[in-house]
Amino acid sequence: MRPGDLPDGGGPLDDALGTGLTDVVRRTGAAIGGLYLIEEPAPMLRLVALCGLPVEFTQPWRRLPLTAPVPVADAIRDDRLVWVGSQDEMTCRYPQTAAVLPYRFALAALPVTGVRRCWGGIVLMWSGDHHREASPRERDHMIASAHRLARLLDDSPRPADLPPQPRAFPLETVRHPVQVGMAAVDYIERLPEGALALDLEGRITFLNTTAARLLGRPADRLLGARPWQALPWLDDPAYEDQYRTAVVSRTPVSFDALRPPDRWLTFRLHPDSSGISVRITSCGRQPVDRAEPATQRPSATPTGRLYQLVHLAAALTETVTVRDLVALISDQIRPAFGAQGMVLSAADAGRLKIIGHRGYPADIIDGLDALPLETDLTPAGQVLAGATPAFFASPADLARNHPRAPRISGKQAWAFLPLVITGRPVGICILSYDRPHTFTADERAVLTSLAGLIAQALDRASLYDAQHRLVHELQQALLPRTLPTMPGLEVAARYLPAGHGLDVSGDFYDLLRLDDTTVAAVIGDVEGHSVAAATLMGQVRTAVHAHASAGAAPDQVLFRTNQLLADLDSDLLVACLYAHVDLAHGRLALASAGHVPPLLREAVHRGRILDIEPGPLLGIGVDLHYPVTTTPLLDGAVLALYTDGLVERPGQDATQATSDLLDHLTGNTDDHDLQHLADSLVHHAWPTGQRTDDVTVLLLRTTHNHLRGPGS
User: Fold this and answer.
1) Total-model pTM
2) Which of 193, 328, 484, 648 gets the most CB atoms within 10 Å of its CB?
C-alpha cells in the first residue's frame, strides 16, 4: 500500500479496518490484535490498527521490513498462516521477537491477500494458558476475517497518508447498570484488602480506601496516574514489567514490593480485555524468597525503552552487510526515536566517508562526504575523537561551537553518536530532526548504548563486505568471461552461487571452440564451498581446456584430468560432465564423472533424460575408465547441462525433480529466447529464489543444418 491508501487519523476505511480487526479478535477469542499494511516502495510493514494493547507497547515493531524474521513477515512472504503455540516455540523460531516479548502467549499471523495483491497481515495473540494448537474453528474464523479485510481493501478508493502511529480500537465489554456499579463500589469498600483498577495503559481508574491507605497516598493523587510513576518505591522497571506481563499474557501475575521503611505488600494482578484488577494485601515481614530491592535511581529508564533497546540490539546482531545496517538504522532506529534524517559515515584514511543516508538531498550529502576528521564544519570529527555522544536540541544549540553547521542541511536538532571499538574510531551515526527536539535522559541513555552496538555491527559488516568482494572477484576470475560464438549454435549460461555468506562456489562450466564445426561443453561441481574448492575448480577447468584443445577424446579428457587430481593429492572430489558436439554430423558424445544426467529436448513436447553410463568421480582413484555415450543431435535440439543444485532440493526426490525439470523444458513453447529459457528453468526449480546450493545451467541449441556435409 502506497502512502495515500489510508486516511490520516481516521475515516471510513480506517474505522472499517478497526471494526474488522476487533471482530476477528472477538470471533477467535484472542486477547490482542494488530493489522499491518504493506508500505511501498521499501517494502515495509506498518502497524495501522491495534486492539487489546496500549499503543506505547508497540514502539519496537510499528514499522518492520518485509524481510524481518518475525511471524507476520513470514506469513506474508509465504502466503500462509503462521502459528506459534508457546513461549518456548517463539524462542526457538523467532528469537528476536521473543527477546522483546518474554511473556507466555500464543500467536497467529496470517496474510491479508486480495484479488489484486497482498495488502498486509494480521497478528493475533491469546493468553498464556491457550492450547498449543489453534482449533479448527479458530483457524476458520481467522482465514474468513482476513478475506473480509482483503475485500474491504480491494474495494477501497485511493486516498491520504498512512497514520504515523497505530490507531487503538477498544474491545467492547459488558457494562452493568449504574445501580449495580454503585453496589459493587460499596462491596469493594467493605473488603479488608486493597483493590484498584488499571486501564490497559496502566493508569489507575479506581481504588478503594484500603488501597490508598496501603499505598500511602491519597486517592485523588493516584487516580489517572501510573503506579510506578506516582509512587517512587514502585519506580523500578521490574515492577512495570509485571504489569506488561499481565497485559500481554492475559494471565494473573503476583509480586511483592517494599513500601518504605519496612512494610511489604503483595500485589495480585488479574487482567482482561478492558484492564487489570489489582488486589493489594500486607504480607508483614519481607518474604523469604525476596531480596531487598536495590536503591532506586532517580531516573530509571522506562521499561518500554529497555525492550526497545533489546529489540534493536537483537536486530543489529542479524545485520550482515553494510547495506543491511543502513536499512536497519533508517527503517527501525530512525523512526523509533522520531528522527527524520540519518547519516552513517565510516572512518577511512582520516576522513568520514558517507556509506548510507536518508532524509537528505543529494547535493547536501555530496558536500558532507569525505570531510576530514578535523573539520569544524560539523561536530562529527570532534565527537568521534572524544568518543562521547553529542545532542543538540536546536540550531542555536549547535551554532554555539559550529556556527556554519545549522545552515548546511536545514535540520533543527541532531544526535551525533560516535562509533568506537576499544578506542579505535569506526565511524559516526547522525540522527537529525526537522523540528527542534529535546532529548530526554532515557533517549540519551538508549542512544548511547546503541552507538556501541552499531559500531560493532559496522565493523563486522565492513569486514564481511571486503571479504565478499574478494570472494566474488576470485570466482569471476575462475569462470569464463565470455562464451565463444559459432554459426549454427546458440548458447546460454547461468551461474548462481547459493549466497551462503563467504562460501565460495565450486560449480564451473566452459564452452570450447575446437574447430569451425565442433565445440566442447563442460560442467562440473567441486566438493565443498571453500577457497581450496574454488582453486581446484580452476585447475580442473584449465586441465579440461588443455586436453580438449589438444584433440583428446571425451573419455581421455576425463581420464587425464583425473590423473592431474591424483598428482595434486587433493582430498576433494569433483563431479564433471564433458560433451563433444559435432555440428557438421549432428552427433553428441558425452562422458560423465559422477555428474547428474543432462536433458535433451529434441522437439516441443518431446525430450528425454540422457541415459549416460557414469564413470567415477574425479579424484577418487587412478587408472579409471570413463565410458562414452553417443546420441544424434537434431536441428533445433536443446541440450541442457546443469549441476545438482538445480534438482536436489530439501524434502524432494531428485529423480522426480529431474523428471519435472524435463517436463518444463519440453513443455515450454515460449523458447525463442534461449536466455529466457535458462531463467525459466532456474525459476521452475527454485520459485522463491531461496536456493540452498549453487546452481549452474548451460544450454546449447542447434539452429540449422547447413553445416552438415553430404551423406552425413
Assistant:
1) 0.57
2) 328
